[in-house]
Amino acid sequence: MSEAIEKVSIVISKGSLEGIYPGLIMANGARMEGIEANLFFTFFGLDAVHKKRHDNIKVATVGNPGLHMATMLGSLPGVSALVTHFMMKEMDKLDIPPIPEFLEMIGDSGAGIYGCKASVDMFHLSEDDFVDQMTGVITVGEFYEMAAGGQIIFT
């Protein structure tokens, strides 16, 4: 018999729509099931929690094999914005909230929302750059300590 998952720590490293939403959906789902959840944003994933960037996340059309025809056209001006608009419209039909609202819901549910200190330092950011729901900026070692005993998911 398998053991129930009690804790997940989700790493979000990509700053694209399809790189951010899976982690948000998984964290929200975990909290809805009573599972402890922590999000760890690193590298370009920090855009999801950056006050000035989280409203402008786009679908990565170049090099995204899942987009099929759009991949070939992805480098043309406007294609990324068009695909992003289409995806947001489809997510809205499914009642999936925009990133800022989703972060607020997840934070309100008790999930931890953390930034990677090395990435924050590398990009010359400060805690003031991030949304109010950010729990803090932590090192990788602190992340592993917090994640101990649970599942680590890299999206």
TrEMBL record:
Official protein name in the record: DsrE/DsrF/DrsH-like family protein
Alphabetical list of Gene3D superfamilies matching this protein: DsrEFH-like
Source species: Congregibacter variabilis
Domain of life (superkingdom): Bacteria
Coiled coil region boundaries: none
